Amino acid sequence: MFAALKPLLFALDPEAAHNLTLAALKTGLVPPVPADDPILATTMAGLALPNPIGLAAGFDKDAEVPDAMLKLGFGFVECGSVCPRPQPGNPKPRLFRLVEDEAVINRFGFNSKGVEFAHARLAARQGKPGVVGINLGANKDSADRTDDYVTGLRALAPLASYVTVNISSPNTPGLRALQDGAALADLIARVTDARGKLDVPVFVKVAPDQGEDDWATIARACIDGGVDGLIVSNTTVSRPTLASRHAGETGGLSGKPLKPLALAALKRFRAETGGALPLIAVGGIASGQDAYDRIRAGASAVQLYSALVYHGPGLVTRIKAELAALLRRDGLTSVGAAVGTQAV
Fold first, then answer.
1. SS3 letters for the chain?
2. In the list 38, 133, 136, 268, which could disulfide-bond 78, CB 3.0-4.6 Å?
3. Per-residue confidence at 344, pLDDT binned at 50, 70, 90?
4. What is the mean pLDDT of the chain?
5. What's the rounded mean pLDDT across residues 160-174?
6. Which active-site residues does the annotation give?
């Protein structure tokens, strides 16, 4: 079905096509997918997953279709980024397909319907199965962005399987400064204090564009602060050689060209953390081999989004089948047995 619809979707503005996809998913008419192969069952920061393939934040910004995405075969779904107050984000156009590169550039700027909307959506699905996390952002005009994360966590953590603190979007000016040592330590301390005794894992999502001294600083702040995992990585502001006419657009680059940079960042954070933190890998994942490479490099689970634009929802089932075959080829009996087996 996707093959038939793809030319029609690609004839639309990318953001309009995305909104049309969300509208279709809201109907609940999702085609059935095969049951997960038992070899794919695993854990991530104590969360039991039927498979390690997750939906990255950005697809379902306001927690409108998490259950539809779970039905498509994802092992877990991350909604957001959600900001405390509603905000429209950056002016349009702000989403670009780089078809020749199988890539996407976005400069959304944390467009969000706000915490209250997301709270209502998550509250409505309480009691349903599936791991659904929430990714938190900060309002562009906030005087205290760290407090925005505290506000979001207090409101949404009781309704989520986990919470991600997104301090690595390149589209909110100054946001990535929160990855700096002292600022990050303060952020983590305030967020974990706000969590209190609530048994909800807190992850930090980091950028692939780090200075040489930043890797160890971020890793140490997260370990010392009691963070439960790192999501590696967000989009990149760098520009490898690209063929598309949209290559010069500002914003974060994702998709196939991000793969080598995201893999390198994962290996670096694995080395800096020494396996002390679960890592979730994102960036350029479009096959079972891609997922397997990240898992062997130290990831407990992976996430994807941009590849869906080019390969459609059937990609999830294909990745899972390929990953299960690779595990068996190498004589492994579980995903967990493969984690970090080629870490450097």
1. CHHHHHHHHHHCCHHHHHHHHHHHHHCCCCCCCCCCCHHHCEEECCEEECCCEEECCCCCCCCCCHHHHHHCCCCEEEEEEECCCCECCCCCCCEEEEHHHCEEEECCCCCECCHHHHHHHHHHCCCCCCEEEEEECCCCCCCCHHHHHHHHHHHHHHHCCCEEEECCCCCCCCHHHHHCHHHHHHHHHHHHHHHCCCCCCEEEEECCCCCCCHHHHHHHHHHHHCCCEEEECCCECCCCCCCCCCCCCCCEEEEHHHHHHHHHHHHHHHHHHCCCCCEEEECCCCCHHHHHHHHHCCEEEEEECHHHHHHCCHHHHHHHHHHHHHHHHCCCCCCHHHCCCCCC
2. 133
3. low
4. 97
5. 96
6. 169
How many residues appear in the chain?
Answer: 344
Instruction: Dump pLDDT digits (tens) for 10-55.
Output: 999 999 999 999 999 999 889 899 999 999 999 999 999 999 999 9
- pLDDT value, residue 3: 87
At 126-156, the pLDDT tens digits run: 999 999 999 999 999 999 999 999 999 999 9
**β-pair partners for 164:** 135, 203
SS3 per-residue string spanning 92-124: CCCEEEEHHHCEEEECCCCCECCHHHHHHHHHH
Distance CA 189, CA 148 (A): 14
d(CA 293, CA 266): 11
Torsion of CA 282, 185, 162, 83, to 10 degrees: -90
Give the position of tokens 């976005």.
106
CB-based contact 206:232 (threshold 8 Å) = yes
Q: Which amino acid is residue 96, in one-letter code? A: F
Where does the pLDDT of residue 318 fall: very low under 50, low under 70, confident under 90, or very high at 90 and above? very high
Angle between helices 145-156 and 181-195 (to 10 degrees): 30
How far, in Å, CA of 131 to CA of 161, rounded?
Answer: 6
φ, ψ of residue 91 in degrees (nearest 5): -60, 150
Q: Are 130 and 136 in contact (CB under 8 A)?
A: no
Q: Which two tokens stand for residue 168?
A: 């690595």
